[in-house]
Task: inverse folding
């Protein structure tokens, strides 16, 4: 369960999760196999996914194997929708996709995705929204436009 720290100098559960993910990402060995590896707009993108359900892994792996153009379109649309992730230097963002929140870290052409633990996901979303680093890729039928909603180009790329 998420708890507020009694000592203001003690890192929060969110800070601990971000530090753990960053450490794992920065310490990937040469032997760590990427989940996805593809070229896009002259760049070679390497993607590592952790704590993802099998359906998400299959969705993107199938796209890589059967429709690389679609995967490139998704990657490009996602990059445009998440400027906090893909700007110059390292970046991070939180995306709501397939019923869960996912942390994305990017350094150069390497991207790390990890499912956010349920007990801190609400607080991660709050932090990401406050820093304009949140993207909601959930399907909503309300017809309302929210600033963090999925852009139409990304929705089309995901839908194929």
Result:
């Amino acid at each position: 369960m998420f708890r507020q720290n009694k000592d203001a100098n003690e890192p929060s559960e969110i800070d601990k999760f971000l530090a753990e993910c960053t450490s794992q990402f920065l310490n990937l060995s040469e032997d760590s196999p990427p989940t996805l590896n593809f070229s896009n707009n002259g760049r070679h993108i390497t993607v590592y996914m952790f704590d993802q359900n099998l359906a998400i892994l299959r969705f993107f792996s199938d796209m890589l194997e059967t429709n690389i153009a679609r995967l490139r379109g998704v990657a490009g649309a996602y990059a445009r929708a998440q400027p906090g992730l893909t700007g110059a230097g390292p970046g991070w963002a939180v995306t709501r996709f397939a019923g869960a929140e996912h942390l994305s870290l990017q350094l150069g052409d390497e991207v790390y995705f990890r499912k956010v633990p349920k007990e801190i996901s609400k607080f991660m979303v709050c932090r990401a929204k406050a820093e304009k680093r949140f993207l909601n890729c959930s399907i909503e039928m309300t017809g309302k436009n929210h600033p963090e909603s999925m852009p139409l180009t990304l929705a089309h790329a995901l839908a194929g």
In short: The CA atoms of residues 136 and 149 lie 5 Å apart.
